[in-house]
Specification:
The complex is a heterodimer of chains A (387) and B (380). Chain A is of the alpha+beta class. In chain A, α2 packs antiparallel against α9. The two termini of chain A are 26 Å apart. Chain B folds into 2 domains: 172 residues, no CATH class; 170 residues, no CATH class. In chain B, α11 runs parallel beside α14 and α13 packs antiparallel against α14. Classes of the chains: A alpha+beta (387), B alpha+beta (380). Chains A and B meet through α2, β2, β3, α9 and β11 of A and α2, α10 and α11 of B.
Chain lengths: 387, 380
């Protein structure tokens, strides 16, 4: 027969201070783990939500990142005539040769300079990405030194309000709008007219990548394959989604550090939980003996104390998760390993993160509770009663 | 029995509890020491003496923009500069995309390279062999071991930025002060095959005549190119490298967050233990008081116990961190050259002692103010 759970709950309430302190210790460990996992989840989200399954990206063969590309306008012409490319309302193929480079901008809060991705594009390039919405102002005009900044650039860098101008390349660029790409990797970019950018970065006539929009997702796959296979082009064709998906490796450093830190802290917290549970067992040895006399088996004593430890850790998990909720959505940046520029992302507490955190705490509670519970179950009744 | 003896005896009388507490503090302090070591190497360490004399000049707009090669002569003519070499990131692929096959590759000028990187050691005949082979390369000792390379081995690097592959022969193995896992080759190799790269360079590394002149030289270089189409940004090697770390994100806040959580967690753990063990001994405290021990002594006894436990944990933890850092540093790469300094260990121990003090103060204070009669009556 099992010992009712209310026995554990009452006991935990009886020693409020001890319970609270142990749970808080576990909560801190859980909070750290949640923080690190939410960072990685946010970063993954930024890359996973970037790209449209209908879009294909053409890069120079062998080049991993857009920035490393570089091919001539003739090639762009060939790409424009490929079958399967969608057309705009006025019959133009939806193909956009773009120039991507990085510039250094000082952060607004004065914590140093950061590499930022600048994309030279054209109206059709905006049409290719229907997920990107204008949040404020208007898009840049062709032939003008105008730029549109992403929402997060707007928040993080000086001189990024509409009407202000930023200085990079060969002069000033007027900010005319703010766009929102819904947390994708484009949220870390500044967009302007490709022709203006080419002259500013001494890349006349050259583009670093070409975006093509296929008529549907199935033809996007064929289109990418065709670009890959075409010997004349000497290009790699990848789906836009696949290209950005690959960049999630940027989170590897955080993931590694996070796992390590969480692991070490978990060992420390397990020890603390064990300590508390040993004290709980020692404190109640007479009670335990009484329970045994009443007919509860060793096994029910064992489960009872393991359960109490689990309850303690669940309390800690709840505390830890609550502690981190205010940080959910907080924006931060890290270096994109493929482009060496900053990618901005938000701390993202996904259900997966929360579930992992709870499991993590439960594991700590289990490890911490098992030995003391075993100790409790194996106590000699007579010795315990006398003690 | 001296008081110190009494404290140590008491600290370890419930062996299991003390071990668990010490263990918990050990792991926390291990983490704290690691974090402080990383902090120190990023933000406080000035680098080696030679490194402090080196400057990096890059295009002001970004690392992705090349500088004209003739800048090298202009930089060389600036007073205070002794030697200049171009450094260009090749970013090639060795074998495959796997992370373990990724390392830095730079094109440079073999004839002057070791005059700027004076702290890189190489046998003179190997340096000469590299200077005579345009398709030659030198690698750092650690990576040569890692990939099993010997002098004379041939390797291929697949270009990602440059549309070409490098077919290199390893001509020398150099030994830097801290291993960097970097391959250097002759930039002329790329210039010959890639037309648009002719006459350009990624960065320039220069050596100043003294660490004091670094700041002045940096401004002079940047002033010289301020109004040219390719303005420059010059900074010390350390500042240049720190720029990459700052791009990893808000590393400072990250480390502080972890340190804060760790310290607070150990504070809770040891406060918990001290509260438990002092409560258990309520009757003993009353006995001590009856025997005539003053309140101050009783306070000192318990605080001493808390501090002892914390210090033992702190010592084991920071020693463990030292061992771990040594092990990781041997692995080279990003953490090469990292070590726990006595100063860092001192701070870790200080934190441990402080945590021990703070956590035992409240329960000890309550114990020392105990009413003797009530204490003797206490059951538990």
């Amino acid at each position: 027969m099992a010992i009712p759970i209310s026995y554990n709950l009452r006991n935990m309430r009886l020693r409020k201070g001890l319970t609270a302190m142990t749970a808080l210790g576990i909560a801190l460990t859980v909070a750290t783990a949640v923080f690190l996992m939410a960072l990685v989840a946010g970063l993954n989200k930024a890359f996973a939500t970037t790209g449209d399954a209908q879009n294909v990206l053409a890069l120079r063969k062998g080049s991993d990142a857009e920035m490393n590309g570089g091919f001539s306008l003739d090639t762009v012409q060939t790409l424009r005539s490929l079958p399967g490319v969608a057309k705009t309302a006025d019959g133009q193929p939806m193909v956009s040769g773009e120039l991507v480079t990085i510039i250094v901008l000082p952060r607004k809060d004065g914590t140093g300079e950061v590499n930022v991705t600048v994309r030279g594009t054209r109206p059709v390039g905006i049409a290719i990405r229907p997920n990107i919405k204008l949040a404020e102002g208007r898009w840049f005009h062709s032939g003008q030194r105008e730029i549109v900044v992403s929402k997060s650039i707007h928040g993080r860098f000086a001189q990024s309000d509409i009407g202000q101008s930023m200085r990079f390349g060969k002069g000033d660029w007027t900010v005319v709008g703010v766009f929102d790409s819904g947390g994708s990797a484009y949220d870390s970019e500044i967009w302007g007219d490709v022709n203006q950018m080419q002259s500013d970065f001494d890349r006349m006539g050259g583009v670093s990548s070409v975006y093509l929009r296929a008529v549907d997702t199935a033809s996007a796959v064929t289109l990418a394959q065709r670009i890959n296979d075409d010997q004349r082009l000497h290009l790699d064709g990848v789906l836009e989604t696949a290209y950005y998906g690959k960049q999630t490796k940027s989170g590897d450093t955080i993931k590694f550090v996070g796992t390590f830190v969480a692991f070490i802290m978990a060992i420390g917290s397990s020890f603390a939980a064990m300590n508390t549970m040993y004290a709980a067992v020692a404190y109640r040895s007479r009670e335990i003996a009484t329970l045994r006399i009443l007919g509860f088996s060793r096994f029910s004593i064992l489960t009872c104390f393991v359960l109490e430890s689990l309850l303690l850790s669940l309390l800690g998990a709840a505390g830890g998760i609550l502690m981190m909720i205010p940080f959910n959505g907080m924006q931060t940046g890290t270096q994109n390993q493929s482009t060496f520029s900053e990618v901005v992302f938000a701390l993202h507490m996904t259900p997966g993160v929360v579930i992992t955190a709870v499991l993590f705490a439960v594991t700590m509670g289990f490890i911490g509770g098992l030995a003391p519970a075993w100790h409790a179950a194996r106590q000699e009744i007579l010795v315990a009663l006398r003690g | 029995m001296t008081l110190t003896h009494f404290v140590t005896k008491n600290a370890f009388r419930n062996k299991r509890r003390s071990l668990l507490t010490v263990g918990s503090i050990t792991f926390s302090l291990l983490l704290l020491t690691l974090m402080m070591t990383i902090w120190r190497s990023f933000y406080l360490d000035k680098g080696s003496e030679d490194s402090a004399q080196r400057l990096m000049t890059r295009h002001k707009v970004s690392l992705a923009n090349f500088l004209p090669e003739f800048y090298r002569q202009r930089i060389r003519s600036i007073p205070g500069v002794t030697h200049v070499v171009p450094i260009t990131w090749f970013g090639g692929k060795y074998k495959d995309d796997k992370a373990e096959n990724f390392f830095a590759q730079f094109g440079t000028d073999p004839t002057e390279f070791f005059k700027v990187y004076t702290d890189y050691k190489i046998p003179p005949e190997q340096a000469a062999a590299w200077q005579h082979d345009r398709a030659g390369a030198i690698v750092d000792e650690h990576m040569a071991k890692k990939y099993g390379w010997k002098v004379g081995d041939k390797i291929t690097l697949k270009g990602t930025i440059f549309p070409m592959n490098l077919e290199l022969t390893i001509r020398g193995i150099y030994n830097p002060p801290t291993s960097t896992d970097t391959l250097y080759f002759d930039a002329k190799y790329v210039e010959e095959s890639v037309r648009w790269f002719r006459g350009s360079a990624g960065l320039f590394a220069s050596l100043a005549d003294s660490p004091q002149s670094v700041g002045r030289v940096a401004t002079t270089i940047d002033d010289a190119f301020r109004n040219s189409p390719q303005p420059t940004k010059t900074e010390s090697e350390k500042a240049f490298l720190l720029g990459f770390i700052s791009m990893l994100g808000n590393v400072k806040a990250f480390i502080l967050f972890i340190c804060g959580a760790v310290v607070f967690a150990i504070l809770l753990v040891s406060a918990n233990t001290m509260a438990m063990s002092i409560r258990e001994r309520t009757r003993e405290v009353a006995v001590l008081k009856t025997l005539g021990f003053p309140r101050k002594t009783i306070l000192a006894l318990f605080i001493g116990e808390g501090v002892t436990l914390a210090l033992v944990g702190g010592l084991i933890g920071s020693l463990g961190a030292t061992g771990l850092v040594g092990l990781v540093a041997k692995g080279g790469g990003f953490f090469a050259g990292l070590s726990v300094t006595p100063g860092t260990m001192g701070v870790a121990l200080l934190v441990a002692g402080l945590v021990g003090f703070l956590s035992s103060f409240a329960p000890s204070y309550t114990a020392s103010r105990l009413n003797i009669v009530e204490g003797l009556r206490h059951i538990g």
